[in-house]
């Protein structure tokens, strides 16, 4: 007995029939044969993921923590301050943040850090560090009650510097531990520390500006903006940069994560001392007098120190690219060009005169050559086991980019 009357018939195909597209071009003749090349082309060199990302990006769990903390922080601001005042505070806080980010970009221009890590640094300061500081404040207020009198002074001079610098410094240490290959020396540490400090100041300024607007309107908000946005936009930047500088020295010496704990604590102590001195000048002394006589000279010294470190980076670039020039990868003239700011500007100006404006190619050539010098420095010090693979990739990239620049 047949259960399926149509079983003896041919089953329909599960593959849909091919229908000609209304936009298909008609074929008028058989295509011509493709002649083989006289010489086999060299394969395109694609850097492996192991040499481009490993040790240069943060762990995904850090990003997950930041997302959760951001949700809690937004809820806190909306509940404690309100959406209107929070929005006004955020718009005002963007002004000093933009100035700081521009300054840090100038510092980081010689050998730029991975963009993802730069964003992570700002996010850690703006979200995680602020969340930790607020959490400790909340816990202490629950245990001891609102801070008044002597406790309020201790909160400003002791608690805030210790808790806030620890929270920010923890972010610098996490970048050092998880993205070790992007942490070459003191300048890198200063960049990451400065960005974390800038992120922290941004969120803290939102709160200060919003509260000033609620309590005193435009007049009080203007005064607060002048003090925090004009006179001291680099305060938190300087504090946390000290921690980053100490970790940068540890990176230059090739210390492991465990070995770097000691230098990190030393840098953290320096950051706490500067922060406490800053807050103490507002509590115990004439803030404007101390600002002019002590804080301004400290900031000038900070800038001069960064300039000296940048020159050291240029000297390292010259030495390491000189090694490649001796092996025939670069000409001495190219080394001179790549190792000075004036030489780079002249090279970019020359690239603009080439057919089709090849400035983008020259920028790529400069960036890859600088990264190549830093890679060789890490290889020489023995602190990067993946340096050899990255060196091969960068040598191919610089040679390819040079050939493209001089192509007719």
Topology of this structure?
Elements: H1 49-52, H2 60-80, H3 83-107, H4 115-144, H5 150-178, H6 186-231, H7 235-252, H8 261-283, H9 287-326, H10 332-338, H11 341-353, H12 359-381, H13 387-405
Helix pairs in contact: 2-4, 3-6, 4-5, 4-6, 5-6, 5-7, 5-8, 6-7, 7-8, 8-9, 9-10, 9-12, 11-12, 12-13
Describe the protein in words.
By secondary structure, the chain is mainly α. The protein folds into 2 domains: 57-285, no CATH class; 317-405, no CATH class. The chain has 13 helices and no strands. It has helices at residues 49-52, 60-80, 83-107, 115-144, 150-178, 186-231, 235-252, 261-283, 287-326, 332-338, 341-353, 359-381, 387-405. The protein is elongated, with a radius of gyration of 29 Å. The N and C termini lie far apart (81 Å). Residues 1-9, 11-19 and 41-47 have low confidence and may be disordered.
Return residue spans where pLDDT drops below 50 for at least 5 consecutive residues.
Answer: 1-9, 11-19, 41-47
Give the beta-strand count. Answer: 0
Number of domains: 2
| Radius of gyration over C-alpha positions, nearest whole angstrom | 29 Å
Largest sheet, strands/sense/barrel: none
Structural class: mainly alpha
Tally the helices: what do you get?
Answer: 13
Distance between the termini: 81 Å
**Helix-strand pattern, N to C?**
HHHHHHHHHHHHH
Proportion in helices: over 70%
Give the oligomer, counting copies of the same chain as homo and different chains as hetero: single chain
Shape: elongated
């Amino acid at each position: 007995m047949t259960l399926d009357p149509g079983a003896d018939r041919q089953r329909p195909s599960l593959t849909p029939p091919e229908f000609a597209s209304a936009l298909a071009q008609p074929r008028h003749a058989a295509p011509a044969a493709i002649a083989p090349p006289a010489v086999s082309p060299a394969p395109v060199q694609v850097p492996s993921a192991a040499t481009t990302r490993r040790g240069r990006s943060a762990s995904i769990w850090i990003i997950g923590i930041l997302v959760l903390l951001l949700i809690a922080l937004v809820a806190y601001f909306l509940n404690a301050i309100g959406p209107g005042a929070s929005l006004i505070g955020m718009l005002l806080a963007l002004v000093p943040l933009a100035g700081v980010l521009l300054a840090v970009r100038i510092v980081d221009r010689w050998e730029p850090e991975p963009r993802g890590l730069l964003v992570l640094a700002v996010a850690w300061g703006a979200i995680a560090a602020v969340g930790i500081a607020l959490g400790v404040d909340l816990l202490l207020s629950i245990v001891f009650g609102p801070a008044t009198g002597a406790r309020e002074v201790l909160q400003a001079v002791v608690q805030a510097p210790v808790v806030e610098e620890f929270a920010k410094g923890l972010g610098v240490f996490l970048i050092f531990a998880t993205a070790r290959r992007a942490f070459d020396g003191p300048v890198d540490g200063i960049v990451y520390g400065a960005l974390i400090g800038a992120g922290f100041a941004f969120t803290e300024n939102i709160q200060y500006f919003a509260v000033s607007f609620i309590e005193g309107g435009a007049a009080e908000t203007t005064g607060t903006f002048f003090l925090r946005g004009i006179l001291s936009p680099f305060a938190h930047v300087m504090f946390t940069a000290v921690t980053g500088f100490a970790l940068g020295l540890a990176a230059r010496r090739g210390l492991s994560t465990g070995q770097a704990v000691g230098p990190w604590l030393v840098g953290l102590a320096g950051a706490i001392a500067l922060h406490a001195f800053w807050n103490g000048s507002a509590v115990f002394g004439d803030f404007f007098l101390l600002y002019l006589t002590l804080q301004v000279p400290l900031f000038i010294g900070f800038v001069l120190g960064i300039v000296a470190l940048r020159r050291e980076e240029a000297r390292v670039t010259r030495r390491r690219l000189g090694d490649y020039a001796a092996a025939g990868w670069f000409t001495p003239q190219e080394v001179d060009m790549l190792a000075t700011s004036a030489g780079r500007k002249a090279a970019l100006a020359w690239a603009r005169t080439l057919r089709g404006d090849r400035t983008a190619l020259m920028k790529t050539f400069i960036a890859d050559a600088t990264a190549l010098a830093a890679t060789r420095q890490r290889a020489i010090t023995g602190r990067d086991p993946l340096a050899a693979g990255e060196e091969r990739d960068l040598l191919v990239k610089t040679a390819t980019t040079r050939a493209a620049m001089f192509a007719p």
